[in-house]
Every structure is written in C-alpha cells, then in structure tokens.
Amino acid sequence: MAAPWAVSGALWERVEPLLPVRPTSRTGPKPVPERQVVPSILVVLVTGIGWEDLPQELGFGSGTMCRRCLRDWQETGVIDQLHEVLPAELNAAGQIDWSRACVDASHVRAKKGPETGPSPPRPQQDRLEAPLICEGGGIPLAVTLTSGNRNDITPLLPLVEKVPPVRGRRGRPRRQPEVLVADRGYDHDTYRHLLRQRGIRPLISRRGTRDTNQPVRWVVEHILALLHQFRRLATRWEHRTDIHHGFLALACGLICWRRLPHRMR
Predict the structure, then answer these.
(1) Which of 44, 60, 108, 201 fits a 20 to 30 Å CA distance from 98?
(2) Closest of 185, 165, 158 to residue 91, by C-alpha
(3) What Å distances lie between residue 115 and 60, 126, 131, 145, 248, CA to CA?
(4) For the chain, what is the HEC assignment?
C-alpha cells in the first residue's frame, strides 16, 4: 500500500501543468525538482511534523525550501487551480450532485497566527474557524478561514460566492446548487432572503426546533472529519494565514482526488 503522501503518476499529470516555470539560474545550488517537493509538503500535511523535521535522508527536500514553494504556489493560485481541475473531472463523471449543497464549519485550536479568536466553548483558547461548503455527495467545493469568535453565518455568503465555476459538462460552468442545507447556527431570515435572491433555496433549521436536516448534513460533517485526519490541520501552527489556507485547500484537493473513479486514475 502506497504511503498517503505518495504522488502517483496520474496525480502528477494533473499537478505538473499548474506549476509555474522556475527561472533558470547559473549560480547557487541546483533546485530540488517539484516532483520531490510535492511529497515533502504532503508529509507535513499528513503527519503534522515541523518543516525542520523533514527526513532528508528519505529523499525529502529542505523544510525551508518546501515551505517557500507552498507559499509561492498559494500566492500564484496553483493549489486553488488544482481544486478546480479535480471537481471538473468529477463533474464530467457525473459525481457532482447540484441538487443541494451543505455548509458547516470546523473549529480548531490556533497556536499561532492572526485572524484567530476565542470561541464560546473555550474562551481561554484562540481558535480558528474553517467554513466549508460541499455538494450533495460530500465533495468539497470551497473553504475559507475566519476567526473562531465570529458568528457561523457571517462568512456564509462569501463562502457561497467562492465556489468556482465547475466545468466538465456541456454548457456553461455551474457554481451554485439548487438548495443550501445548514444547521440552526445559520438561522437568519435576512440570509435566507439573500440566498433566494441568488436563486438558491435555503433549507436551514430553525432555532428551538428539532434539526430535521441531520440526515442530509452528515456529508459535510464527514468531510470535516476527513480534514481533521490531516494532522497539520488539527491545530494551526502556521503564523501565516496563506500557508494554513494552502494546506487546507490542498487537503480538499486530495479528498476530491480520492473520489475520482478508478478508471480515471
């Protein structure tokens, strides 16, 4: 069984065209090939070890260099593009359920970095919130970052608008579902009205009533549980928000990759 950070040839065929061309230099040490850098970043993501603890005797690159590559790829949109390419393939295979989408947020402890804040359950701890939206089958479409002391509903509309145009089928790319399902934390009539203005029917449980959406919402809770299996995402250790967001988007891309039918790998 291959290691969880192993990059297969089929996955590399999708990643390599997205990477920026490195400028040629006649001085300095020879740069480590990107084919070697990507597994190094995945080791940090999967195991949660520090950049300086990368085992170079196993062929991984320098932690400082790998961190710099992740920073550059996040700034140039490489990781977000990967998270657009894979859903397009899933859409072409008929794996995207646009009849509904589910939204929820993950709360993790933040050891470092800005854009964090205490959450009501643990006011003595700084926490980070990662709102996520997935389609009806549990494929992540978009994810954002915000501080743990903000109301869950505040980033709802920016999250919906962040869903990229998903290609893969004839006609215009699609980027919004027919129905949006959420729990009682998103109960607000103003946001229901704003969703309807965008052509999305809200299916949000009311406060003080029984949550009847649980049989549908389990898919987004399952995705959040999968994200927490990436040890680097269980606690925020990165001071830079873009680095942590790069890890988060990369994890979502890997989840999409694992959902591709075997015939497409």
Answers:
(1) 108
(2) 165
(3) 31, 10, 14, 8, 15
(4) CCCCCCCCHHHHHHHHHHCCCCCCCCCCCCCCCHHHHHHHHHHHHHHCCCHHHCCHHHCCCCHHHHHHHHHHHHHCCHHHHHHHHHHHHHHHCCCCCCCCEEEEEEEEEECCCCCCEEECCEEEEEEEEEEEEEECCCCEEEECCEECCCCCCCCHHHHHHHCCCECCCCCCCECCCCEEEECHHHCCHHHHHHHHHCCCEEEECCCCCCCCCHHHHHHHHHHHHHHHCCHHHHEECCCCHHHHHHHHHHHHHHHHHHHCCHHHC
As a whole number of angstroms, the distance between CA 232 and CA 201 comes to 35
258 and 265 Cβ atoms separated by less than 8 Å: no
Listed in sequence order, the residues at least 6 apart from 90 whose beta carbon sits closer than 8 Å to its beta carbon are 96, 139, 168, 256, 259, 260
**CA dist., res. 127 & res. 220, Å (int):** 20
Cα 85–Cα 89–Cα 92 angle in degrees, nearest 5: 135
pTM comes to 0.87
User: Which two three-digit tokens encode residue 238?
Assistant: 């990165």
Return the structure tokens found at 70. 């992740």
- List pLDDT tens digits, range 156-208: 999 999 999 999 888 889 999 999 999 988 999 999 999 999 999 999 988 88
